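Sanity check

After download, print the first record. It should look like this:
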Amino acid sequence: MIYGIKRVAKYLLGTDIAGRSLAVYPDDTFIVSYPRSGNTWTRFLVASLICPGEPVTFANIERIIPDAEAQSSRYLKRIPRPRFIKSHQYFDPRFKKVIYIVRDPRDVALSYYDFQRKYRQIEDGSPLADYVREFVAGRLGSAGWGTWGENVGSWLAARDGHSGFLLLRYEDLISETARELARVADFLRVEVTPELLATTIERGSAQRMRELEQSQGSQWVSTRNRRTDIPFVRTASAGSWKTLLQPESVQEIESAWGPLMKHLGYGLTIAPSDSLQEGESGSVFNLRLRNG
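Expected structure tokens:
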């Protein structure tokens, strides 16, 4: 009873976090990913496609494409429809149209490590190897969204190949931005010209986003009152794990999710058989997603 009263009070005051309890409408489009997989960058790109006359910034991104993990239920209900919403949720059957971004979990672990230092959730001197162990085991603060393997695997198993589901690899967005952005536009049924694609890419460049973070970070809900010496927008690169992760950490990640990584085109440093449990299939649909 008390819990229900508190929940209603938070909703009325606009102090709750919508998260998985948000109200979903049939014409919603969701931009979904496991944390630190390129969702914010993709939001900027999509926002520029759907609002070409308004330069996207951290000051207006929550109005154009709000974050369900940072905004209240009441705030989201007030967004004009059709809505575009960011989410980190594992598979939700209510989400009928989804752009899902996936990133190599070895790079995700590195980015998440810096993110949690920025949020003062871990100490600067926390051993990276210990952090990777917690990341694989699903013992981070984001445990409610599942591990990387559970989050990614839930969406692929349920929706891969579905007409309302578009899978983007972060690495492809980096190397072939125009091509992948054209795929997004086609999925959203947005007519684009070469000029619009070029403008969208420029407005979503890592350099511009870093500059915006420096000038608007105190206004944006995700960086307000956070450390300013660690950027939210990092290097926007792929493959840093090759030089920054210890071989033992790489092996932990690959042993946990090797079949799923291979399915997504991420090369493994250990033999595929080493990343499979006995009797386990390499198919993503038969994969027994582990949480440690």
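If your output differs, re-run the checksum step. Summary of this record's structure: Strands lie at 29-33, 84-87, 98-102, 165-169.
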